[in-house]
Specification:
single chain, 195 residues, alpha/beta, Rossmann fold, seven-stranded mixed sheet
Length: 195
């Protein structure tokens, strides 16, 4: 049984080294930072996911940070299995993902809503039976010119983007921690108003 203040954090991405540095995998990059902050290495969970567990501070919320070993478009099964295993309701699931509709280097936070064409979110909502989970939407911006969105998200960040990428990843990790510590309104106030 999970403690009442347990939060499941899903860092979305695709498995395999060929996807590691791509825009679509920013959720996994954020998950890696959160695991490092917790000081807990990832371990294989029986769901197939890689999981790092720890407390944000003594007596504080517990984070279960997961990266999935399934492809992005079928993220729901492992997410639902983890939620069931840790007894975490949808409203305490935080999904960190790339977002085309937000400029690069920006973060927006919300609960529920549509999937905006993001197949990972669509599959998670279907598997959980509800879209009412938290999202840390990490902006990657729109593709330049006529580049296909699918090609854009599966490409590595540009050299220019890589200069500020660590800050964006840290900000997204901060947003996850603030959601768990202080809730949605506090996190939105900080990240939606330019701090």
């Amino acid at each position: 049984m999970a403690a009442a203040d347990t939060w499941l954090v899903i860092g979305l991405g695709n498995p395999g080294p060929q996807y590691e540095r791509t825009r679509h995998n920013i959720g996994q990059m954020v998950a890696a930072v959160l695991a490092a902050r917790l000081g807990q290495a990832f371990k294989r969970h029986r769901s197939g996911a890689q999981v790092s567990e720890g407390f944000l501070r003594p007596g504080g919320p517990k984070l279960v940070v997961a990266t999935l070993t399934s492809y992005m478009n079928v993220s729901g099964k492992q997410t639902a299995a983890l939620a069931q295993f840790y007894s975490v309701p949808a409203e305490r699931i935080i999904v960190v993902h790339d977002e085309l509709d937000i400029p690069f280097d920006s973060i927006k936070i919300k609960i529920g809503g549509g999937h905006g064409g993001h197949n990972g979110l669509r599959d998670i909502a279907a598997a959980l039976g509800t879209p009412e989970f938290l999202r840390v939407r990490t902006g990657i911006g729109r593709p330049p010119g006529r580049q296909d969105a699918a090609d854009f998200v599966l490409a590595p960040f540009s050299a220019e983007e890589r200069k500020t990428l660590p800050i964006l990843i840290d900000d997204a990790a901060d947003a996850v921690e603030l959601l768990a510590e202080e809730g949605l309104t506090a996190a939105q106030l900080k990240f939606h108003t330019g701090k």
